[in-house]
Amino acid sequence: MPFEPDAIFFDLFNTLLHFDFEKLPAVDHRGQVRRTTMVEVHRELTRAWGLTETLTSFLEAFDEASREMEQLKTGGREYPSRERFERLRRKLGLQDAAVTEIMVRVHMEGMFSMMYRPAEILDVLERLQGIPKVLASNFDHAPTAKRALKAFGLAPHLDHVFISDEVGWRKPAPQFFQAICRDSGFDPSRCLFVGDDLEADVVGAARAGFQVAWLRAGRSAVPVPEPRWTIKRLVEVLPLVSQS
Q1: Distance separating alpha carbons of residues 186 and 189, to the nearest angstrom
Q2: What integer pLDDT is reported at residue 186 of this predicted model?
Q3: For 42-61, what is each residue's pLDDT tens digit?
Q4: Residue 122: how many CB atoms within 10 A of its CB?
Q5: How far apart are CA 37 and CA 181, in angstroms?
Q6: 2 C-beta neighbours (distance < 10 Å), count
Q7: pLDDT class of 218 with cuts at 50, 70, 90
Q8: How far apart (Å, rounded) are the C-alpha atoms in residues 173 and 162?
Q9: For residue 190, which of 203, 204, 208, 214 has the smallest C-alpha distance?
Q10: Mind listing the pLDDT tens digit for each residue in 141-161?
Q11: pTM above 0.90, yes or no
Q12: Distance between CA atoms of 178 and 24, rounded to whole angstroms?
């Protein structure tokens, strides 16, 4: 029997929007081909700020800053993208704080450039127009996420937008789910949560009390607790829900 949710909560990336990493420049780093926004960031700093670091040493400093941020995030707190690049600026020995903002801007332009929306997404959202829809996304730069929502025509279909950068917590932390349920006014047990990430979207949402549809997309591992439904494409949400 179809579920009649009070609202449907959607993850953003790899659920409503996807990334095409082939659009990023490739670099051979330590014997491995890597596609990264940092090629353009390094180029801009070299051009405009006279950076003398090689791309290899620049990537190593960036990776070190990223590892530090991942360690900080293990507690569930979200930190804005600026924090990672502020750490990188200091590792590079650059004194002007304006460099941090430039790195964030170039990095986020690269992130935005590889986003795309599968053709079926808007049709699915339109066919669910009788049900409130809520975005619940992990992303460390809310302005870029909101820019994407507008650019790809998703914003008009969403009644609430929650991005970890603004919430201050990230999935699967229970504080994230508590905050979005409190601020949206929905009881999670009466709502459907749709997402692709095993920990963030499936385990986190299930533990918060949501009915969960896992956008499995070919993955073989089965999470614990198991989702109520497993789907391969977003359009498969439609027969799962009924609309009064």
Answers
A1: 9
A2: 98
A3: 999 999 988 999 999 999 99
A4: 16
A5: 34
A6: 10
A7: low
A8: 14
A9: 208
A10: 999 999 999 999 999 999 999
A11: yes
A12: 36
7 pLDDT above the threshold of 70: yes
Instruction: Write down the pLDDT at residue 3.
Output: 86
Encoding tokens for residue 46?
Answer: 């070299």
**C-alpha angle 174/175/180, rounded to 5°?**
100
Q: Do 11 and 136 touch, CB atoms closer than 8 A?
A: yes
Burial 179-192 (b: 16+ CB within 10 A, else e): bbbeebebebeebb
Strands 211-215 and 229-231, by their bridges, are parallel
Amino acid at 123: D
Residues in the chain, total = 244
Q: Which amino acid is at 127?
A: R
DSSP letters spanning the chain: --B--SEEEE--BTTTBEE-GGGSPEEEETTEEEE-THHHHHHHHHHHH-----HHHHHHHHHHHHHHHHHHHTTSB---HHHHHHHHHHHHT---THHHHHHHHHHHHHHHHTEE--THHHHHHHHTTTS-EEEEE--S-HHHHHHHHHHTT-GGG-SEEEEHHHHSB-TT-HHHHHHHHHHHT--GGGEEEEES-IIIIIIHHHHTT-EEEEE-TT-----SSPPSEEESSGGGGGGGB---
Q: What residues have CB less than 8 Å from 149, skipping those under 6 apart?
A: 12, 135, 155, 158, 161
